[in-house]
């Protein structure tokens, strides 16, 4: 998934330089590939959140719940989402955006470095 992200990031898109030529990107299939990849990434992140929520529900039933560092971060974000005392309320999309930023930011740079080495 990350390798495909790096390829998509590196694609030449006409719309980046001349927005009036965005139709060329659609014709080349660039927009469709990006949309498909974004959907896959969204499903992956949604699965991570759902897995965390499932484990919390199981723990509430009395089953063992082993928390790793990633889950603690997701737990914290979900708690912030439920906190009604804040002036800004996290939405699920906000949480997914933060997780995507962390996931991509932590993997794309090392991947690019290895690729260029």
Automatic annotation (TrEMBL):
Pfam families: p450 (PF00067). GO terms for molecular function: heme binding; iron ion binding; monooxygenase activity; oxidoreductase activity, acting on paired donors, with incorporation or reduction of molecular oxygen. The keyword Heme applies. Keywords: Heme, Iron, Metal-binding, Monooxygenase, Oxidoreductase. InterPro entries: Cyt_P450, Cyt_P450_sf. One of its GO terms (biological process) is sesquiterpene biosynthetic process. Coiled coil: none annotated. The keyword Ribosomal protein does not apply. PANTHER family: CYTOCHROME P450 71A2-LIKE, CYTOCHROME P450 FAMILY 71 PROTEIN. Belongs to the cytochrome P450 family. This is Cytochrome P450. It comes from Artemisia annua. The lineage of its organism: Eukaryota, Viridiplantae, Streptophyta, Embryophyta, Tracheophyta.
